[in-house]
Amino acid sequence: MRSVLAGDLGGTKCRFALVGEDFSVHRVQHVATVRDRAAFLDAFDRAIGSILGQVPDGLDRPTAAGFGTAGVIPVGGRAIDRAPNLPLDGFPLGEHVESRFGLPTTLLNDGRASALGEFLRGHAVGADPLLCLFFGTGIGIGVVVGGRPYGGATNAAGEIGHTTFVPGGRPCPCGGTGHFEAYCGGRAIVERAAAEVGIHAEGAWDVGKVVRAAEAGNPAARVILTDARLAACTLAENACTLLNPGALVLGGGVLSGWPALRSTIEEHVRANTGAAIHGGLRFAPSLGGSDAILWGAAAATGVLWPGANAR
Ligand SMILES: [Zn+2]
Q1: pLDDT tens per residue across span 135-170
Q2: In a domain, 121, yes or no
Q3: What range does the domain containing 211 cover?
């Protein structure tokens, strides 16, 4: 069976594996993401070398590599232009993998990789266009159009979390103000809860602490969640109205910590978009996790499922 080397490069850890054309995932290797580039690349090379050194029986040696990564990938997918949590700004990772391991390499933003994985294997298989919104530390978005991840003219499409929700409002991690992410991103919710409620949470998945405080009657926690709910609902409504997707996939750590938000968003979209938008719209939970990114990154190479490659 044919295979592709796939990677999920995240801000705290990276995961590498072989992906077979039946979507099976083999020989998984984990690497902690460190800030020093030389140390990072050393661990990166060792993990890939270990995988390629022990290709399982029944699997062909991989003929390409695909990586889903945080950060901005210029058109062509050869380098990571800006990677906030990886020591790879401007580094030609595609050339690096090709010269070290002889594998033609494709890089893909991890939101797009996730969306492509959801499109191929998730709960909304084949829904086209497919819109995925991930309420994690930040707001991740992935759009699949015509079976391919949509990148826009310069591979920068989709940053709807950094559009304005409240003019002149709260500061956003990107440096702007009043953006959706400053209200319904996981980092924004927990940082605001620390400052205004005294709750010490650790990440998007810890939003549950804020939910429990609100349920216990804490007025400041209630205000934070009311703002977050309105921002998340409006964001989904706007994105669905713009794209008219066949399915909306919702995922991310904020929803894990605050499960009721999922149905609230779905009800809001049904009630606030036209019948032509919501009439045929399917709602689906995200598969989530790293496997969706590995599948999407593998697909982006165009080797296993030729219709699904990135541009
Ligand atoms: Zn922003």
Answers
A1: 988 898 999 999 889 989 988 888 899 999 999 999
A2: no
A3: 126-286
H-type alpha helices, the chain = 37-53, 93-101, 110-121, 181-184, 186-196, 207-215, 219-243, 253-257, 260-272, 275-278, 289-300
Residues 38, 8 share a domain = yes
Q: If you measure from the C-alpha of residue 307 to the centroid of ligand 1, how many angstroms do you get, rounded to a whole number?
A: 33
Domain count, the chain: 2
Identify whether 36 is part of a domain.
Answer: yes
Measure Cα distances from 51 to 15, 239, 290 in Å.
11, 39, 17
Count of CB atoms situated within 10 Å of the CB of 205: 19
Report how far ligand 1's centroid is from the alpha carbon of 159 (Å). Answer: 9
pLDDT in tens, 221-278: 999 999 999 999 999 999 999 999 999 999 988 999 999 999 999 999 999 999 999 9
How much distance in Å is there from the Cα of 177 to the middle of ligand 1? 7
Ligand 1 centroid, distance to 176 Cα (angstroms): 5
User: What is the rounded CA–CA span in Å between residue 296 and residue 302?
Assistant: 10
The amino acid at residue 205 is W
- Residue 169 Cα, ligand 1 centroid: separation in angstroms? 11
171 and 271: one domain? yes
Residues 266 and 154 in one domain: yes
Same domain, 133 and 258: yes
- Domain identity same for 252 and 300: no
Query: How far apart (Å, rounded) are the C-alpha atoms in residues 46 and 130?
Result: 36
Residue 82 lies in a domain: yes
Alpha carbon of 185 to ligand 1 centroid (Å):
10
The helix/strand/coil state of 299 is: helix
Cα torsion 60, 305, 23, 132: sign: positive
In a domain, 16, yes or no: yes
DSSP code string of 251-270: ESHHHHH-THHHHHHHHHHH
For strands 65-69 and 3-9, give the pairing. parallel
* Residues with C-beta atoms within 5 A of ion ligand 1: 162, 172, 174, 176, 179
